[in-house]
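Morning run. Coffee first, then this:
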Amino acid sequence: MSTGFERLGNDSQLQDHWIRRLVAFIIDSILVSVVTFIITIIVWIPFILMAAATGLPWNLFNPFSFPFYSGMLSVLYFTLFETYSGSTFGKRIMSLKTTSLDGQRPSLRSAFIRNVSKIYWILVLVDVLIGLASSGSPRQKVTDRVAGTIVVSTSVSPLIRAASNQAGERFCPHCGQKSSADAKYCPYCGKEQS
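And here it is:
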């Protein structure tokens, strides 16, 4: 059985899938980092004011704990959003969603298992690399396999859509198949083109 790395080199759809997941993860990480920073500042204000008033060192609240708090908030953010809406903001932008293998939204337990590696970025990287290096679906990281989840496309990739607009091509927004620029209905799924 071939590994995900072997397929990744030759399969443009798989490359698109992982690029979209990476972009979605970056968007979500930026969002979580901004929220963590705001919360940290709000929490630090009383400590800084107390330190100024009493002369105690204000850094008793460990400033190096930001990655830990950001990781905790990431796990919470990804878990709750994937459980209750099927996708995070980044995944919505990139036309992706997380489902269980039967096509339903993941349970809270499954969403937590698949997102526990997001506590620290190096664990996410290891999770993806081991998933691609082992046999199984090349669209799943290890924690996806353990949780019984997969990330799927909800419509044609925004990356493919942008490239096709430059080349004068058109893709169905419902099934992602290429159609002629003047087609009113998709020849594959039959839905009206917008």
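The two ends are 41 Å apart (CA to CA). Good start to the day.
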